[in-house]
Amino acid sequence: MVTSGQQGRRQRQGAMADAGGRAAEHQVARLYEAQGHRLVAARWRGQGGEIDLIFDAPPALIFVEVKRARTHDLALHRLAEHPRHRLFSAVAEYHALQAVPQECICRIDAALVDGTGRIKILENAFV
């Protein structure tokens, strides 16, 4: 049986993890924007899943999955556990709903954020 104290601790931990994830996404968004890319959507949710960040970088669209952990290696491990089919399904759904032209170049990057806020970008991480 879960006590109210345990439940409260879990809720606080979940809220802290969500806030940390949002902060990491914000850091990554600033990095891509500094490179001249325009943020199109953050936490875009479709029926198939969620895309953390989407950037317009003509002639391409860049979909970014952000993973935050104490180290880049741990973030990479979490990325490996991520159900890729949900990410691919969300990207396909975004394409269909936004009428993205077939000739559009698209890539899916992974952004790994460690506990100190350092960011490591893996371009085309899911190829």
Structure description:
The protein has 127 residues and is α+β, with helices and mostly antiparallel strands. The chain has a single domain (4-122), classed as Trna Endonuclease, Chain: A, domain 1 (3-Layer(aba) Sandwich). The chain is built from three helices and five strands, in the order αβββααββ. Strands 1-2-3-4-5 form a five-stranded mixed beta sheet, with helices on both faces. The longest helix has 31 residues, at 4-34. The chain is globular and about 55 Å long.
The CATH topology annotation reads as Trna Endonuclease, Chain: A, domain 1
Proportion of residues in helical segments: 40-55%
**How many DSSP helices?**
3
Global outline: globular
> Taking Cα atoms only, what radius of gyration do you get, to the nearest Å?
16 Å
Order of helices and strands: HEEEHHEE
Give the total of domains: 1
How many angstroms does the end-to-end distance come to?
44 Å
Q: What does the oligomeric state look like here? A: single chain
Pfam families: UPF0102 (PF02021)
Region (Disordered): 1-20
GO molecular function, one term: nucleic acid binding
InterPro entries: Restrct_endonuc-II-like (IPR011335), tRNA_endonuc-like_dom_sf (IPR011856), UPF0102_YraN-like (IPR003509)
